[in-house]
Write a structure and sequence with these properties.
Layout lengths: L1 H9 L10 H4 E5 L5 E3 L2 E6 L5 E5 L3 E11 L8 E8 L7 E7 L8 E7 L8 E4 L9 E7 L3 E6 L2 E7 L15 E8 L19 E14 L4 H5 L19 H14 E4 L21
Antiparallel strand pairs: 1-4, 2-3, 3-14, 4-13, 5-10, 5-14, 6-7, 6-13, 7-8, 8-9, 9-15, 10-11, 11-12
Length: 283
């Protein structure tokens, strides 16, 4: 404990932020729909508007988690988003997007990553449970070595840092946490073939137990401080530089049974020029 206090005294931006909604997030649009009460956030979508919230501060590395109960019933055309993002034309971003579907059809989760303003790195999965029946945990673990997307502690995707090989990695911009519920029936469900049925509105998504155990962004000095290999920066520990054997087994199970799209295999999309990271070992 004393060592950790001394480190934080020397490097004041290394702060573990144990956040919740009421203390750490605020509504950004759809104020007439959304509400924050304690550790709960409710977002609503109808014909007039969706709604959204954003964290009050930015982070660089750590673990961001949230429990989410998605829109029940016929959610086709809706998107519930939970992601990290910086700002500007060269922004970084790490996404979870939950694509609604017709009643009885599985939800799909779209993951994506932007580095220096460039995205187009989607991987999609069907969820192996009904995400509207109860709350489930969705975590983004982000450190200088890798980014891992988790669903109920199961890793579903890994994006490793190959910056030394000229592949961009998000490690120099602080990112805020965003959530939103909005209409995207031009693409969200079966490529836009299934439209939002407004007679089922209002659509409601609930968020609970937001935790950002992460390094607070304090400007350019945080690039070095948040990546420093010191005890306060627990995310730089060797155990977080590679998935464990048990986690690799879980990841392979998810990808074998529930993966429905991988940009790395979409040769038509990239005219045969598959992005370079697709030829690197990610996990």
């Amino acid at each position: 404990m004393l060592a950790a206090l001394l480190i934080c005294a020397v490097l004041p931006n290394i702060i573990l932020v144990d956040a919740n909604f009421s203390k750490s997030m605020h509504l950004t649009w759809g104020f007439q729909h959304a509400s924050i009460l304690g550790d709960d956030l409710h977002l609503v979508l109808d014909r007039n508007s969706g709604s959204a919230a954003r964290s009050k501060r930015s982070f660089l590395f750590g673990s961001i988690e949230m429990q989410i109960k998605l829109v029940p019933g016929n959610s086709a055309g809706t998107v519930t988003a939970y992601y990290l993002a910086s700002t500007g034309s060269q922004h970084d971003e790490i996404d979870f997007e939950f694509l609604g579907n017709s009643t009885g059809q599985p939800y799909a989760v779209n993951t994506n990553i932007y580095t220096q303003g460039t995205g187009n790195r989607e991987q999609q999965f069907y969820l192996w449970f009904d995400p509207s029946a109860d709350f489930h945990n969705y975590t983004i673990h982000w450190n200088p070595t890798e980014i891992v997307w988790y669903v109920d502690s199961f890793p579903i995707r890994v994006f490793r840092n190959f910056e030394k090989e000229g592949i961009a990695y998000p490690n120099k911009q602080g990112m805020r946490v965003y959530t939103s519920l909005w209409n995207a029936d031009d693409w969200a469900t079966r490529g836009g073939l299934v439209k939002t049925n407004w007679s089922d509105a209002p659509f409601k998504a609930r968020f609970h137990h937001f935790r950002a155990r992460a390094c607070k962004w304090g400007g350019a000095m945080s690039i070095t401080q948040c990546a420093s290999n010191v005890p306060a920066n627990w995310w730089t520990s060797p155990i977080y530089k590679q998935l464990s054997h048990a986690h690799k087994v879980q990841l392979n199970w998810v990808r074998k049974n529930f993966m429905i799209y991988d940009y790395c295999t979409d040769t038509k999309r990239f005219n045969g020029q598959i992005p370079r990271e697709c030829f690197r070992t990610q996990f």
